[in-house]
Design a protein that fits this description.
homodimer; alpha/beta; 7 helices; 11% strand
Chain lengths: 193, 193
């Protein structure tokens, strides 16, 4: 096999969830049908790996010391929303219903995967909390690990005497009760208003 | 979201089988845990997309006009093995039991995916066949599409008056009959020697 082809297959295997077979398929596809795409991807990887750092305040990926949201002075400066990933942050932004700042954990507590208190950067959140925060909205995912992470964040807020709230659980907008899972219905009943 | 991050996620989606979610997961993984890997992958993509062409004789990916195998004069020059992909070729080479040349189709006939006679480069194979070939071993995969492709290659050989053989179907070495599928057993019985 040509050496630059086997090098490419080897490099593609570094992507999470990509084994030998998928790496081969990806390499053949790019070389056979989408060389332009291969070059675009190469440039995007270079740019991201070299330019992206972390925002000093919210810890999300950012090309500048302060990300766009953290440097936006029109946002509520004393309201902080804690999310797991930049994707969760993007989802909240798309909803256009939140005007405060964020703290992005870049993961969730998962001791089995070796992600503990320190690896998750919770000490950074602790530093952020003393920096003028009135309320923390905990918007980690409603999964087992997300809930454990939420618990840790709530405790951290409690220790600093800061009010912490959690996103409401309930029936998704636009859904029919018949198709909503039982746990969600139970929560929606409990948290009824 | 930072622009180089969203550009990276967008570029990763060009990989086959990678949707929005996987692309995000890949981007976060590379940026958070493996920036070195991102740079290695970027360089490998660049090198492969710019250096890899096709071997003039066997049509596999090659950095030179003739690939290593085609330019190896110690191999049997009049024996040709037709395979679907460079990966299949590599598997045959690993078996160390074939000393002829190859023709790599770079795919299989699949009209539903728009891969017909011409897209598969069968005209190239036709040109190759008049170039001093005594026997063609058809080693396409034993899938529905591979069999159709084999049929087409056999017809092509017949038209040129060249002997065409197919890899033997049978029970894999090291396997127990109990766990071998019925179609394979049926073929092994039919082709018994």
């Amino acid at each position: 096999m040509a050496s630059s082809l086997s090098a490419l297959i080897e490099a593609l295997r570094r992507l999470p969830g990509v084994g030998a077979k998928s790496a081969q398929r990806m390499a053949y596809h790019l070389l056979q049908h989408d060389r332009q795409g291969a070059l675009v991807l190469a440039d995007a990887l270079h740019a991201a790996a070299q330019q992206l750092g972390h925002c000093e305040r919210c810890h999300t990926f950012s090309e500048t010391a302060l990300c766009d949201i953290c440097s936006d002075t029109t946002r509520e400066q004393r309201l902080l929303c804690v999310v797991e990933t930049p994707a969760d942050q993007a989802a909240l932004e798309r909803s256009a219903s939140y005007r405060g700042l964020y703290f992005v954990l870049m993961g969730r507590l998962s001791p089995l995967d070796g992600v503990g208190w320190r690896e998750l950067g919770l000490p950074l959140l602790k530093d952020r909390l003393v920096d003028g925060v009135d309320e923390v909205i905990v918007a980690t995912n409603f999964t087992a690990e997300g809930e454990v992470t939420a618990q840790a964040v709530v405790q951290l807020c409690g220790a600093q005497g800061i009010k912490a709230t959690r996103l409401a659980r309930g029936v998704p907008v636009g859904s029919e009760l018949e198709y909503v899972d039982l746990g969600t219905i139970a929560h929606a009943l409990m948290d009824r208003r």
